[in-house]
Every structure is written in structure tokens, then in C-alpha cells.
Specification:
Chain A: Residues 10-78 form the HTH gntR-type domain. The structure holds 2 protein chains of 2 kinds. By secondary structure, chain A is mainly alpha-helical. Chain A has helices at 12-25, 38-45, 49-61, 85-102, 107-120; strands at residues 65-66, 74-75. Chain B contains 12 helices and 14 strands. Chain B has helices at 4-8, 49-56, 79-82, 100-110, 116-125, 139-151, 169-183, 197-203, 221-227, 239-243, 267-275, 288-295, and strands at 11-20, 23-33, 38-43, 64-69, 72-73, 85-88, 157-161, 189-193, 206-211, 214-220, 229-234, 248-254, 257-262, 279-285. Chain B is elongated, with a radius of gyration of 22 Å. The chains are: A mainly alpha, B alpha/beta.
């Protein structure tokens, strides 16, 4: 369900948090869908159960997941103005814009590049 | 010291010093392992990892300081406390003439708690045959058997010294899946050493790094990721300015910019770099392997 990349320098709990958010934003996980238990995830991905709990706790705090007694974690109902696709793109965009500035690429040029590659990348 | 709290702490090490043959192998070690912890022990060959694991289990007496398991001195553990420990030594100490089945029959009598269901699950899963003499097994098979024997009595503290060195990648993954399933039990604590840092990265909650017998790092893995970072910047920093920055593990400068690896990254450090004339300061995370290499003096890492 998740693709974890331990050597990336990004804590695994954060990778989980980001991937759940992306699945929710992209509609692959819908409100009411349940998530695997901590034990299942820790076992299948061979990651520390505390890492999974930490990710679930953060997602609960942020209102992405709901915890109900005796039930698996589930995706919370949508609320307006929350976790938009734009929020999810801010980080990669910041990275791209910084790199572009370092290379002296101005905004119009960057737009052209984005358009060109948007069409090419499947 | 023997309060209710120390009884719940699987491992408490206080001011530990250990000498072997007149040589100091371990010194000034104070740390603890709490229930739920999965500690990864890193260190170069000869840094004292095996000695530390053996000392905390009470196989040798400290020259100074002490190790306690659930509040008991580890050299004077009650028999019932010893039953709470599972240990996989670096070199297997299995009797070559026996078969796993014979060993299980023997252990079943010695151990008040014995999980036959777990054996029934693990033996076929790990492709081990109960009837094969141990001396006819491969190194990997022996290592798997040693692990099975170490967990079959449901210990609360698992100490594993290089448990995966002889295992192929598939067996290693199976082992870690099993280990993480085991870590889901309440009150369990795990300490293991390995040179395969990428494996460790998946499963540990805490990292110990031994250098010349001293713990130079004892931190949650997530904290390490956030504080030991590579920093790329534009602009010129003088060598003198760079030396003035604390906790640098590695630096490479040019008049146009450079790279630093810093041990305690935070916003104040970012501000300091900007005030010294750097611009476009960008911090990125490192793999645990790179962190380990830089920690030992940046020249090995790239």
C-alpha cells in the first residue's frame, strides 16, 4: 500500500504521513475507508510499530484520520478548506522555484519548461 | 534506586566502564532502554559493540559502574529474570551433533514459557527442517535457528548481536517482519547490532553509536534525521567563518558556494550562515549510513 524509502533521509513516519495525505487528496482513500492496523503495517513493511503509531497520531491530530474505539483507523470526512491539492504541491514547488532561481531561470522561462514537460511526462 | 520505576526499565546502564586484559574497552556509558524501544547499535569493528552487549547481559563484570535489567544487577540476575531475556550471540554456540527437534525438546524442559505455536509458524516459514543435524546446516540456517531459539520463550528483552550477517535479503526481510511483529507486544525491548545500516533504518527507534568504547550518539532516529543534515549554500564563506560554526562534520567551500554537514541543525544555524554571507541555504536529510560515515569523520562519505 505504501512505498517506503528508508535511505532517503526523510523520517519514515513522515513518509507515511505524506503518502496517506496524497492518497486522500487523490481520492484513492475516501472518507470512511479504513486503514491497516499498526501491527499489519509494521509487519508487512518491516518497520517499527512506534513509527506507524506516530504517523497515525499525527494524521489524527491533523484531522485526516479518525480513531474510534475498537475500530480500525479511518479516513475522516472532508471539511472545507483543508489539505487541498495546493498544500501538497507547495513543498515540491518551492524546491523547483529555488533551483530555477539558482540557475537564473526567470518565471516566463520556467512556465514554458513546465508546459513542455507536463505534456511529455506520462 | 530500586524503586518501582527501575523495575519496569529493561536496561539501565550507569557510568559503565569495562576492562579486558588491562585495556579499557568501554567507558563512561550511561543510558537506558525502555519498554517498546528498538535500539540499533552502530560502531566500527573493534569499537566495543559485542563487549557492551555481553556486559549489559551480565556475562562479565564492569570495572566501574553497573548494568541493571529491570532493576537487578545484571551479574546477579535471579533465574526468573534470566528467563525474560533472549540472546543471539555473534558466533553461534549451537551443538553441532543435535537436531533442532532435539534442541527444542531440551529447551522446552528448561523454559517455563515455551511458544510451540511460534515454532510451528517460523520453522516452515524460514525453511528450516527440524530433523537436520546442526553441523550440516549453512551459516544462514544456523543463524535463523539461533533467532528462533532466542524468541521461542517469549522474552521481554531481545539482544541480537549481528543477527542478519549471514542472511540473504529475503531472509533478512522475513526476519525483520517477524521482529517487528514481535515488537508489537507490550513491554518488549530490542537491542541489536548490525553493519547493514539500511536495514536498521527501517526498524530502530533509537540509535546508539559506539566510538572507541564511548557512546557518542544516543538519540531517537527521527531526531538524528532532523538534526544531522547536509546544507548546500551559494555565496562565499571564508574558511575562518566555517571553522567558527559549531558541530561541523564536513565542509567543502568554493568562492561560489559549498556544502556542509552539520550535526545540530536548527533555525539559529540557518540564521548564522546567512549572517556570514551565505545565500540560498538549503538543508536536506541524509541516510543513516551517511550520518554514520560523517559521524566518523567526513572523508569516507560523498
Amino acid at each position: 500500500m505504501f512505498i517506503l524509502n528508508p535511505g532517503s533521509g526523510v523520517p519514515i513516519y513522515r513518509q507515511l504521513v505524506e503518502q496517506v495525505k496524497r492518497l486522500v487528496a487523490g481520492g484513492q482513500l475516501r472518507p470512511g475507508d479504513s486503514l491497516p492496523s499498526v501491527r499489519e503495517l509494521a509487519g508487512t513493511h518491516a518497520v517499527n510499530p512506534m513509527t506507524v503509531s506516530k504517523a497515525y497520531n499525527q494524521l489524527e491530530l491533523e484531522g485526516v484520520l479518525l480513531r474510534r474505539r475498537g475500530r480500525p483507523m479511518e479516513v475522516a470526512p472532508w471539511r472545507d478548506g483543508e489539505a487541498s491539492t495546493e498544500d501538497l504541491l507547495v513543498e515540491p514547488l518551492t524546491e523547483l522555484i529555488r533551483s530555477a532561481r539558482q540557475l537564473g531561470v526567470k518565471l516566463p522561462e520556467l512556465k514554458v519548461l513546465i508546459e513542455k514537460h507536463y505534456r511529455n511526462i506520462k | 534506586m530500586n524503586s518501582v520505576n527501575t523495575l519496569k526499565i529493561p536496561v539501565q546502564i550507569t557510568n559503565l566502564q569495562r576492562q579486558l586484559g588491562g585495556q579499557t574497552i568501554l567507558q563512561d556509558i550511561t543510558t537506558q532502554v525502555r519498554p517498546g524501544d528498538v535500539v540499533g547499535l552502530l560502531g566500527k569493528n573493534g569499537s566495543g559493540k559485542t563487549t557492551l552487549l555481553e556486559t549489559l547481559l551480565g556475562f562479565g563484570a564492569p570495572a566501574f559502574g553497573q548494568c541493571q535489567l529491570w532493576g537487578e544487577k545484571s551479574t546477579e540476575l535471579a533465574p526468573a529474570t534470566k528467563q525474560r531475556i533472549g540472546y543471539v550471540p555473534q558466533r553461534d554456540e549451537l551443538p553441532g551433533e543435535m537436531t533442532p527437534k532435539q534442541l527444542f525438546d531440551l529447551y522446552r524442559q528448561l523454559r517455563p514459557e515455551w511458544n510451540d505455536d511460534l515454532l510451528k509458524q517460523l520453522m516452515p516459514e524460514w525453511e528450516l527442517s527440524e530433523g537436520k543435524r546442526i553441523r550440516r546446516m549453512s551459516e544462514g540456517q544456523k543463524q535463523k535457528l539461533a533467532i528462533v531459539l532466542a524468541v521461542a520463550h517469549n522474552p521481554d528483552l531481545l539482544v541480537l548481536d549481528e543477527p542478519v550477517a549471514s542472511l540473504d535479503p529475503i531472509a533478512r526481510r522475513q526476519f525483520f517482519q517477524q521482529l517487528m511483529d514481535y515488537a508489537c507486544r507490550e513491554h518488549t525491548a530490542i537491542i541489536f547490532s548490525s553493519h547493514i545500516v539500511s536495514d536498521m533504518e527501517r526498524i530502530v527507534s533509537r540509535v546508539w553509536c559506539l566510538q572507541n568504547g564511548t557512546l557518542t550518539c544516543d538519540q531517537p532516529l527521527d531526531t538524528l534525521y532532523e538534526t544531522v543534515v547536509r546544507v548546500d549554500y551559494s555565496g562565499a564563506l571564508t574558511d575562518k567563518a566555517v571553522i567558527g560554526i559549531d558541530q561541523i562534520l564536513f565542509s567543502q567551500n568554493s568562492p561560489h558556494g559549498g556544502q556542509l554537514v552539520i550535526k545540530d541543525w536548527n533555525d539559529a544555524k540557518r540564521e548564522q550562515l546567512l549572517s556570514l554571507g551565505a545565500s540560498q541555504v538549503k538543508a536536506s536529510g541524509l541516510s543513516l549510513e551517511d550520518i554514520f560515515l560523517y559521524w566518523h569523520g567526513g572523508t569516507y562519505a560523498n
